[in-house]
Amino acid sequence: MAYAAGIVRDAIIDFLTQHQREASTSEITHAVSRLIGPVASSSVRSYLNLNTPGLFTRVARGHYRLTLTGETALSGDFALAHAGDARLIHADCFDWLAQQQENRFQAVVTDPPYSLLEYSPTHTAKLRAGKGGIWRLPPSFDGRQRAPLPRFTVLNAADRENLWLFFARLAHSLHRVIVPGANVVVASNPLLCHLVASAMSSSGLELRGYLVRQVMTMRGGDRPKNAHNEFNMVSVMPRSQWEPWVLLRKPLEGRAQDNLRRWHTGGFRRPATDKPFGDLIRSHPTPAGEKRIAPHPSLKPQGFMRQLVRAVLPLAQGEVLDPFMGAGSTLAAANAVGYRSVGVEIDADFYQMAKQSVQRLSALKLKNE
Ligand SMILES: C[S@@+](CC[C@H](N)C(=O)[O-])C[C@H]1O[C@@H](n2cnc3c(N)ncnc32)[C@H](O)[C@@H]1O
């Protein structure tokens, strides 16, 4: 049967809009036939081809989805909020990344969960209840209550294997959505950074070294448990005074200058013309004022985040992604230095916290700025 111009095309659009994901030509033909009466699959195919690219995207041989644009493409099926130039998505980042277009982001700065358990719903509930689980309170030597830290030393061989697989999967998911030359910077710790580096560089990203956040942490330095007096001159582990951030990059297309011209990536923005960005950044624990604005257990300080985020876009062009946004310290830093950014958070409470905190954190005036 011959249909008036546009009827088949509109029926395909109706079906794919409801379907919300890709479909094969035969699924589309069946659906369109149900909507408007019998249609030959050759006719559906020609409408699809005629409008691709544009209305439809061919995702694999004989499989199509609606071409999404702008905000719809970014948020997909997930909740979206704005905070200045930052966009906040409430989603599991792996589901969300799978829906994003290729070559979409120019840099990634992120602070992922480490034990893979600490931010699971069970352990987040234990953290909020203040007892049990993988979270511990570090010793209080000055009478002040300290924020809980996740315990990385409880990871066994199977946990480490899972951690490796998690970071390999993360690198694989990121690789598609970032442009050639994009910097990927991942917060880590001295016990596990070798796993992150090995897993993420196994999935097509190049390991480019480490950035060091120089900070006095609450990790290590303790005397042997239950034998403090006997071994009062011993620390089982050194008191950690630095935090490694693993630095990776999607391989360049051609030389650095070619990549910079085409993709605006492939280097670091200098703090000043006569000063290169350095791999040691002096920092401090997150100030109490920032924690009051965003009481997330892993909140990173704006002083450090602003220096880091500023540096990852060499030409100050593009958009920074944080797939594990937490309360949004990366996004707040991006706003503060004038960049666009996108953050993804799986936990509903932390997502709400980020919606309320990002603008307030980015508005903070810091010393030495
Ligand atoms: C270490 S925290 C990040 C804290 C952040 N840097 C800040 O300053 O607020 C990791 C965050 O990732 C979130 N998360 C864990 N798994 C996730 C996933 N699959 N997708 C998105 N977010 C996830 C956790 O709920 C947690 O808030």
From TrEMBL:
Q: Name one GO molecular function term.
A: N-methyltransferase activity
Q: Domain named DNA methylase N-4/N-6: which ranges? A: 106-356
One Pfam family in the UniProt entry = N6_N4_Mtase
> Which InterPro entries does the record match to this protein?
DNA_methylase_N4/N6 (IPR002941), DNA_methylase_N6_adenine_CS (IPR002052), RM_Methyltransferase (IPR001091), SAM-dependent_MTases_sf (IPR029063)
Name one process (GO BP) from the record: methylation
Keywords from the named record: Methyltransferase, Transferase
Question: Could you say which EC number(s) this protein's record lists?
Answer: 2.1.1.-
Looking up Gene3D superfamilies in the UniProt record yields: Vaccinia Virus protein VP39
**Sequence similarity:** Belongs to the N(4)/N(6)-methyltransferase family.
Q: What is this protein called?
A: Methyltransferase
